[in-house]
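Worked example

This section walks through a single chain of length 168. The input is the sequence exactly as stored; nothing has been trimmed or padded.
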Amino acid sequence: MWLRDALPKAFPTIRVILYGYDTKLFESSSFQTIADLGSNLARTLDAFGFTSPTAKPLMFLAHSLGGIVVKEALVGEHSITRATIGSIFFGVPSRGMETQALMTMVNGQPNKNLVLDLAVGSDYLQCLDDRFFEVVRCGKMELFQGYETKTSPTVEVSTKLYCLQSTF
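Given that input, the structure is written out below as tokens.
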């Protein structure tokens, strides 16, 4: 993975941290909200000392839902906001995304609300963006955003069942 392997070689004075979270949608029993995911990120960085005054500054590189999670962490935790010098967002659905196909996967599950919060026209996303840009305006944070200008394929739910058989 280029983030872990190549980036530190190209820039030896930086420290790269990869952070992941459960993104399973189908047959998920998770009821975490985006706010929960952002708070978990903030607490993890804080617990490992990445937000201490003597730590290297934080620069986030986030894609898709990861960018929403980073925004939530930055608006909710002052220690992270003070430690962050910038963010680079790629394909972050700040104005929402088409969720119809995803809703068929999460209907009746506890993670349904998380997908609803990502929909186009979501009040949650609008409120998050308002709070996030207030943090950016008040702080010393650089923000770069990249987004797609062409439609891309989306999730499709298949009704076909496949049985894999292994022989040991």
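What to look for: The first strand starts at residue 58 and ends at 63.
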